[in-house]
Design goal:
179 residues; alpha/beta; four-stranded parallel β-sheet; 6 strands
Length: 179
C-alpha cells in the first residue's frame, strides 16, 4: 500500500490504527503479525499480535505466524546513516570533498517529490538498502519453515525501497495498491 508510514506521516491519518487492524482481521487476526514502531506496537494494537523492528532481531517467537503487516517504514536518524556509511565504506571527509559536518551539509535531507530523502546520493542509497533489509528480515520472521502461503502487506511511500524488497523476495506474487 503506497502511503506515508513514517512516524510523522502516520500522525496525519486519524484512522491509521483502525485500517491496520481491519487488514489484520481480513488476513486472520490470530495468524497475522503487525510490525510497527515501538511506541505504536506497544500501545495501539491490543488484542493483536504486534511487535517492533528492534525486537525482531534473532527472534523466532513468530515463526508459526502466517501473515505479516509492515505498518511503518523503519527509518534511522540521518546522522546515524551518515556515520554508519562513513564507517563501513572507510571513506574520509577528503574523499567526499568537504567536511560534511561543518560546511553546507549534503548529508541532511529534504522533500524529493513526495518522499523525504538525504541529499547525498550515496548516503540515500545506503539508507534505502538498510530500510529494505530491515523490512526483509522482519518479513522472514514469520512462516519460518515456509509451510504456508504468506500474505505480506507493506505500507510505504518509497517505491525504491519497495522494489528492493520485492527483488529480495523472488517468486512472490505482487499486488500493489494505493490507499
Amino acid at each position: 500500500i503506497f502511503e506515508n508510514s513514517s512516524a510523522s506521516g502516520k500522525e496525519k491519518y486519524s484512522n491509521y490504527r483502525d485500517v491496520i487492524c481491519k487488514i489484520a482481521d481480513d488476513l486472520g487476526k490470530n495468524e497475522t503479525l503487525i510490525i510497527d514502531n515501538m511506541k505504536s506496537a506497544n500501545r495501539d494494537y491490543a488484542g493483536y499480535k504486534s511487535t517492533y523492528f528492534a525486537n525482531l532481531r534473532s527472534n523466532n517467537d513468530y515463526k508459526n505466524m502466517k501473515n505479516v503487516i509492515i505498518a511503518c517504514t523503519p527509518y534511522l536518524p540521518d546522522k546515524e546513516i551518515v556515520l554508519e556509511y562513513l564507517y563501513f565504506s572507510r571513506k574520509t571527509y577528503d574523499e567526499i570533498g568537504e567536511n560534511i559536518f561543518i560546511s553546507a551539509p549534503t548529508w541532511n535531507g529534504g522533500k524529493h517529490g513526495d518522499i523525504y530523502e538525504l541529499n547525498d546520493r550515496d548516503f540515500e542509497m545506503y539508507r534505502k538498502q538498510l530500510v529494505a533489509s530491515e523490512i526483509y528480515q522482519a518479513i522472514k520472521r514469520v512462516n519460518r519453515d515456509m509451510s504456508q502461503e504468506t500474505n505480506v502487506v507493506i505500507i510505504t511511500k518509497d517505491n525504491v525501497v519497495f522494489n528492493m524488497i520485492c527483488d529480495m523476495l523472488p517468486n512472490c506474487k505482487l499486488i500493489q495498491e494505493s490507499k
